[in-house]
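Support case: guanosine-5',3'-tetraphosphate complex. Customer-provided input:
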Amino acid sequence: MTNQKEIEKRRTFGIIAHPDAGKTTLTEKLLLFGGAIQTAGAVKSNKIKKTATSDFMEIEKQRGISVATSVMAFDYRNKHINILDTPGHKDFAEDTYRTLTAVDSVILVIDNASGVESQTEKLMEVCRMRNTPVIIFINKMDRYGKDAFDVLDEIEQKLDINVRPLAWPIGMGDEFKGVYNMYKHELSLFDGNKTNISEELIKFSDLTDPQLDEIIGEKAAGELRDEVELVDGVYDPFNQEDYLSGKVAPVFFGSAVNNFGVRELLEAFVEISPSPRGRDTDEGFIEPENSKFSGFVFKIHANLDPNHRDRIAFLRIVSGKFERNTFYKHVRNSKKMKFANPTSFMAQDKSIVDEAYPGDVIGLYDSSNFKIGDTLTEGKDFNFVGIPSFSPEFFQELRNDDPMKSKQLEKGIRQLMDEGVAQMFIQEPGSRKIVGTVGQLQFEVILYRLLHEYGAKCSFTPLNYHKACWITSDKPAEIEKFTRAKVGSIAKDKDENLVFLAETSFLLEMAERDYPEITFHKTSEFKVK
Ligand code: G4P
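Agent response - structure generated as follows:
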């Protein structure tokens, strides 16, 4: 066993949330606790929020920020923690989905007043696909919101996961008094004006202790006792195995902006969250302890500055030890590559790394060698699997407005697709280029980048498709029959997989009903076996 100590030290996770729930604030507080930053305000939100969709300078600025905050590392209690940032804007949701393939666990932030929102449901679906362990932080307890039991019910119903509160709030809004940590049997009192990060904890192994009434008042103490009893009666005791297999999500309450409840969350996180896990490949499962280096690219960030056309490929290390200036195999290209400037990120700082271990994410400067999903190995050839494409929600036909620039367009669009900006489908038969995205903003980004980076002038014509579903069947004749019947609605993705472009949800349901031998996949994950 090599690198065992380094592996056990690492915790790689992502914070996910519906925009405005408090992801940026929580990230910043975690970095403050970890000493990675000294002042609040150092982490910029990567939201593209107060922006008109056509304001590209703003998008570029925001993209720049999101490179800097792509990975934020800090040390806490002898653990090396990597936070992988996920874009908040819903139009970049696919970027978030892919980042979730590179984490070992997730902290989900929910706004106590808003409860479970649409984006949260989608993000959780992706977590469930690979049984990612999830800890839930219910934020903004300093405001009036939903009753704690109601929020938990809503989470269980809408997110289809069992919960187990490990902390319990005492009141909310102006009456928010603090949180009782049921895991550690400690009371932590809220001071709305708190500006420092030290929290005084009072040990309370027995809630019947009359001292509790003195500290938080008789009424609040009575309520807390009743509610904790109810929690213990309603929810099964916390079981770490169930959390690690994604069956139950422990829940904490707090107020990130007031630094409240964040330490409890972090303490529990370092104690219960998983160390780096292995990943599936087309040649079987690779354990992190495997002595040979391997890793995969889950994100590519283009530098939009025309003077610096390089890109950064973000690589998650799965096994072995990555070393600078050492040759590794780029499996898809069958090419040996070495890296002089592999980069690690730390809040706003970047630095060159000489070595990195499973769980770490490094940035590799790249001139169009990488595609999302690419594997680097030392030794045996294999490919990591399970970086899915998701069924896009918006479709437009890409037209070339300058036939003299066809080559530039081909190159540009290929590179943008490699980066995962959008997905392209080629209509079958024919050669219509249909671009599918998860948000409208991407179309503008694509046109802008094709023009400014590749000199290709194009336009989009909106198409009325509802969903693109990958189709597979054990019976090739069924597929043939289907594609004949649906001429005009069939296309191929970048890997030549057949895709059905359904115009409405009704037509999709009809197709599913009429062709029971065909499976209609909403993500390309079906390729994972
Ligand atoms: P996001 O990254 O999930 O989109 O959310 P972000 O942290 O940017 O937080 C969204 C807003 O919610 C921010 O206010 C932030 O200050 C506020 N917030 C975060 N945590 C808490 C909390 O515990 N209690 C309360 N009351 N508010 C909280 P903003 O006005 O949009 O931005 P700002 O001007 O304060 O930065």
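Residues 17, 19-25, 45, 47, 88, 139-140, 142-143, 255-258 surround guanosine-5',3'-tetraphosphate (CB under 6 Å).

Case will auto-close in a few days if no follow-up is received.
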